[in-house]
Amino acid sequence: MAINTLPVSDKEQIKALIPQREPIIMVDKLLAYSDTEVKASLTITEENIFTAHNTFTEAGIIEHMAQTIALHSGYKNKDEQGDVPIGFIGAIKKVEVFTLPKVTDVLTTTATIVTEFMGITLVKLRCMKDDTLISECEMKTAIANA
């Protein structure tokens, strides 16, 4: 499946770029990509496993931000076989959650790569709802077999 045009909003194309599968997929659009930055979004639904009492939880926000990084790796490394790299969160620092979004809210997360060396990546993330900062943090991720 060729994925050459942004934005990517087709569910199957998104699944081709990340290793996660239902019910844990926490990105539904790849909005922008460059070598050092990626932007992705998620529309929060009542059926989402991280939704409780019409509110998206902290764990869901962090997973959404982590999957934004996974989209960057998947889009960068996509190949004809559809293989995407498997990554792991090595560390999460400076996590701040300012407010919890509600069902139907659209989260947009920008991940900016600070440094990348031997399969280890330091990333700064900002999660927004419209013009409101929902959460920010730093993550270190590692690609398996890098």
Automatic annotation (TrEMBL):
Name of protein: Uncharacterized protein
Pfam families, sorted: ApeP-like (PF22817)
Organism of provenance: Croceibacter atlanticus (strain ATCC BAA-628 / JCM 21780 / CIP 108009 / IAM 15332 / KCTC 12090 / HTCC2559)
